[in-house]
Specification:
The protein is an alpha+beta fold. Among the domains are: about 130 residues, PAS domain (Beta-Lactamase), CATH 3.30.450; about 110 residues, Beta-Lactamase (2-Layer Sandwich); about 170 residues, 2-Layer Sandwich (Alpha-Beta Plaits), CATH 3.30.70. About 50% of the residues lie in helices and about 25% in strands. It has 18 helices and 20 strands. The strands form 4 sheets. Strands 1, 2, 3, 4, 5 and 6 form a 6-stranded antiparallel β-sheet that branches. Helix 15 crosses helix 16. The longest helix is centred in the middle third of the chain and has 69 residues. It is rod-shaped. It binds guanosine-5'-triphosphate. The site of guanosine-5'-triphosphate has 17 residues, from strand 16, helix 15 and helix 16. It is found in: Cell inner membrane. Its cofactor is Mg(2+). It comes from Halopseudomonas pachastrellae.
């Protein structure tokens, strides 16, 4: 929805239109007032002129009436009447003729006769247009003026009928009419001669028909005024006046135009002022809005700054906490590879300052972590797997010591860049513990030799390895002779001690790397000899017999030879074949051991050739 300020130009435009309309109406009202004033003035003039026409006609009619009043004398002396009539005709140009009608309405006398001869003897019939006027004049005894009619001589005429009476004794006799014929044009010209003016158009009408026109070509006004004219009781005449431009110009003023122009200028100034005020208001509103936005922006920035400070404080706290962490935390940015962050533990644990460590990592990372360059390439590929990984690495301290480092790596993508979050931990203790556990899980508790589980695993792995190399795998199965009697006679603890001494002796007999002695179970031992053929197996067995003999452990049982503890050994050697298994080797050595026992004990027995075949 538009604001009132935005609608302001439309409101001002609407106001201007209203003012323009009001000015137009005012202008029209003023023009109408002027026109009414001009009309009233013209009406006054028309009324005055009509009155003057009537007065002038009455004056002329009065001369005829006075002539008619002398009818008794004139009736007797026609010459005198003729002379008086002629005099009257000379005085009044508008009189065409003076006539006498007798009581029977017959034309009896005309002055001047010349030109009017045709009228002598004319009798007015009831059908004559002027007949009603004759009757009216006769019956009323008052003069009457006829309507206009065509004169024999041409033009229009008016007949003024004055009834004539004569007193004869006591009798008043009607002797007809003194008839004055007026030429309309001359009569009206004469009547209007003093009043004609260039600035008026005149028309003298009889029953709507123009008898006389004095009209100017300059007739701008569409209106006219009329005033009735009554001549000798004939009220069929009307004087019509129409103003000319000149008259209108004289009666109208520039006031309406001036008022309109002044008003228009005032309205224009008012609207311009309002528009300027509106603009000002709009600008101040915009300014207020801008200020408001600015305030909001300032507030937002303050909030952002506070958040930033808060985040910085948190970041510093996190920084401090990570610096005090036992774990080394470092963040790598990829493409290009760069160290984004190192916590204090990283460089302190290695004996460097942060700048020194960064410089070494930049130019020779392998000096810190062997194989670091290859490892970093491997890490870079982690962005495709998107997975986490844990690596076991070693790092070299400034003093040259190397320490194990377990590095947990997580890939993150932020702001269009890949990062690796790496947490490193010196896990030497765990490694040692694991190694110890591993060792314990493979060690026999009594003798410290490898146990049966280790034997099984090692025999299988060596079997597979030597099968690939097609190299013989030798095995000695060894059992203490008459050990039951030993225990029975000397006690179980003495038996344990003897077993420990035997184990030590067995270990001392192994010369080659990869050879290992395991406690197979109870008083039985197994010696794995990778790469040893039959003769080599027997050599080792011989060394074992000698070593056991050197122990010189007294055996209490009477049937034992020399009264010393001895062992029997079964030896076997095979080049591993796909169709054989490690159990075949164990079985052969075991069988040979059984044979050694059967053969009298304290001896070695090599697996016989037929026993070298797989089962
Ligand atoms: N003290 C002790 N004795 C053990 C241990 N393991 C097995 N023995 C004993 O070893 C003896 C083995 O006896 P036998 O299997 O009958 O065999 P032998 O008496 O050695 O006779 P030959 O093997 O035929 O010579 C048993 O009496 C077991 O109790 C051990 O860890 N300590």
């Amino acid at each position: 929805m538009p604001t009132p300020i935005k609608q302001f130009p439309r409101l001002v435009l609407a106001l201007f239109c209203i003012l323009a309309l009001a000015l137009y109406l005012l202008w029209q009202a003023l023009l109408n007032a002027e026109q009414e004033q001009a009309r009233a003035r013209l009406q006054l003039e028309a009324d005055a002129l009509a009155h003057q026409i009537q007065t002038r006609f009455e004056q002329q009619a009065a001369t005829l009436v006075r002539l008619a009043e002398r009818w008794p004398q004139h009736r007797e002396s026609r010459d005198l009447w003729t002379a008086n009539a002629a005099q009257l005709l000379r005085d009044d140009d508008n009189l065409q003729a003076i006539e006498w009608l007798d009581a029977s309405f017959r034309m009896r006398w005309i002055e001047p006769l010349r030109g009017n001869e045709a009228a002598i003897g004319l009798t007015y019939k009831p059908t004559h247009p002027n007949y009603p006027f004759l009757l009216a004049a006769r019956d009323s005894g008052q003069p009457r003026l006829s309507n206009s009619f065509e004169l024999v001589q041409g033009g229009l005429g008016l007949a003024y009928y004055i009834p004539l009476h004569r007193i004869s004794g006591d009798v008043r006799r009607f002797d007809g009419f003194l008839l004055g014929i007026f030429r309309v044009e001359v009569l009206i010209n004469d009547l209007l001669s003093e009043l004609r003016a260039a600035d008026r158009s005149l028309r003298f009408e009889e029953n709507g028909k123009a008898l006389y026109r004095a009209e100017s070509d300059d007739q701008a006004a569409p209106w006219s005024v009329s005033s009735p004219v009554t001549l000798a009781d004939n009220s069929n005449f009307v004087l019509v006046m129409r103003p000319t431009d000149q008259l209108l110009a004289s009666t109208t003023t520039q006031l309406p135009l001036m008022v309109v122009i002044s008003g228009a200028l005032a309205a224009l100034l008012l609207c311009i002022s309002l528009m300027l005020a509106g603009r000002g208001a709009q600008r101040s509103q915009q300014l207020a809005r801008s200020n408001h936005q600015l305030q909001a922006e300032i507030k937002r920035r303050q909030e952002t700054e506070e958040t930033l400070q808060h985040n910085q404080a948190r970041l510093k706290l996190i920084h401090d906490m990570t610096d005090h962490s036992h774990d080394a935390l470092f963040i790598l940015g990829l493409e290009p590879l760069e160290v984004v962050y190192l916590n204090r533990t990283c460089w302190q644990s290695l004996g460097y300052s942060e700048a020194e460590l960064r410089e070494i990592l930049r130019i020779a990372p392998n000096d810190i972590m062997p194989g670091a360059i290859t490892w970093l390439k491997e890490l870079s590929s982690m962005i495709h797997s998107q997975g986490d990984a844990i690596y076991q690495k070693r790092v070299t301290r400034r003093d040259g010591q190397t320490r194990p480092l377990e590095v947990s790596v997580r890939h993150l993508r932020r702001l269009g860049r890949d990062y690796l979050i790496c947490v490193g931990r010196d896990n030497s203790e765990q490694l040692q513990l694991a190694a110890r556990l591993q060792q314990l899980s493979h060690q026999d508790g009594l003798t410290g030799l490898f146990n049966r589980r280790y034997f099984d695993k090692t025999l299988i792995s060596e079997w597979r390895r030597l099968r690939r190399e097609q190299t013989p795998l030798g095995l000695l199965m060894l059992d203490v002779d008459h050990f039951k009697h030993f225990n029975d006679e000397l006690g179980h603890q003495a038996g344990d001690d003897a077993l420990q001494q035997v184990a030590t002796a067995l270990n001392s007999c192994l010369m080659r790397e990869g050879d290992c002695v395991c406690r197979y179970g109870g008083e039985e031992f197994a010696v794995i000899l990778p790469g040893a053929g039959a003769s080599q197996c027997l050599q080792v067995a011989e060394r074992i017999h000698n070593a056991i003999a050197k122990l010189n452990i007294r055996h209490p049982h009477t049937t034992v030879e020399h009264g010393r503890l001895t062992v029997s050994i079964g030896a076997a050697s095979l080049i591993p074949q796909p169709q054989w298994s490690p159990h075949d080797l164990v079985h052969q050595a075991d069988t040979a051991l059984y044979q050694a026992k059967s053969g009298g004990r304290n001896r070695s027995q090599l697996s016989k050739p037929e026993e070298s075949q797989p089962r």
